[in-house]
Structure formats: structure tokens, C-alpha cells
Amino acid sequence: MGVRTLSSYRGRWLVFFSHPADFTPVCTSEFVAFAQAHAAFLALDCDLLALSVDSLSSHLAWQQSIEQRFGVRVPFPIVEDPAMGIAQAYGMLPAGATSSATVRTTFVIDPEGIVRASIAYPLTVGRSVAEIRRLVQALQATEAGDVSTPEGWHPGEPVLANPPMTSEEVGARGPDWYYRLESA
Questions:
Q1: What is the pLDDT of residues 60-91, one digit of tens each?
Q2: Where would a tag sit more exposed on the chain, N or C end, judged by fewer CB atoms within 10 A?
Q3: 46 labelled catalytic
């Protein structure tokens, strides 16, 4: 899909995620799920960008295999990183790693290019694409207002008013001053 730079995504949200290798079962399940959710991420003004140590030819063969086996086209780019330089520069690998086996990191990057959340997964546990999408939605909701989101929050549900910063504000809010839900 051509040359990509992180700076070319400025102005949009970005989910930048790495995986250890093409043609692995956990990664395949994630790519199918990300591909199926691609339109939902685009609706959030959020792009997807994957990274793997495999070569471009491997990426192309894997994408073709996914389409043939699961009937799903992978519509987002996969960056090739055979020397693991990008993975190491972005902290997706421990210093001195000689294998990509631990490359299982997800970054949610805001339109200004700031990493707002990161999640590292072990080799054997697949990511929840629905949770990553919910995380983007929660970050966007908190960015839009002076609020926080409670555990498990989904769009349309009440948000938390940020706690007061002065004694007067505490007194004005009453006994629920530290935990107040309000409409989104």
C-alpha cells in the first residue's frame, strides 16, 4: 500500500499494532477481526496500521491466504520490519531481543501524534479488537469534554464528571463529589 510514516497519519487517530509473524494462528484471528472492524474504525476517524518483522512478499501471501480462507480482505497496510529496527525503536521489543516473538504491542495515537494508550499482549493471547475500538471511543469522548469514563464505558452511556479541585467545589457537589455520573 505504499510508503507510510507515522507523521502521515497526523490529524487522525491511529491504532498502530505489531505482531510477531505472518501465518500464525493468533495473529490471523486478529487480522480477520481488524479487517472486519475496519469500517467501524474509519467511522471514528481512526486508521489501522500493522507492523511485522516479515517481508513484503510474506505480507502479500498472508493477506491473500486470509482472503481465500476467511473471505476477508485486509484493507490496511502492514509495515515490514525484518531487522526489527522499528519494533525496537518504539519499545515493542525488549532491548537486545533476537526474536520477534514478543512483538505484541498496540498503540493508540491521537491526531497530534501522541501515544494515548498502549497495550502489550503475550504471544498466546489474542487482542480484543472490540476493546481497542472501545478504547478509541473512550479517548475521543474524554478529549471532547472535561470528563472521564467509568469501567466498561460505551458510547451513549453516562460519563464521570472530573473530581473537583477545590474545597468549595467539593461542598457544592455534596456527598457524591468524587463520583458523579452525567449524560455524555
A1: 999 999 999 999 999 999 998 888 888 888 88
A2: N
A3: no
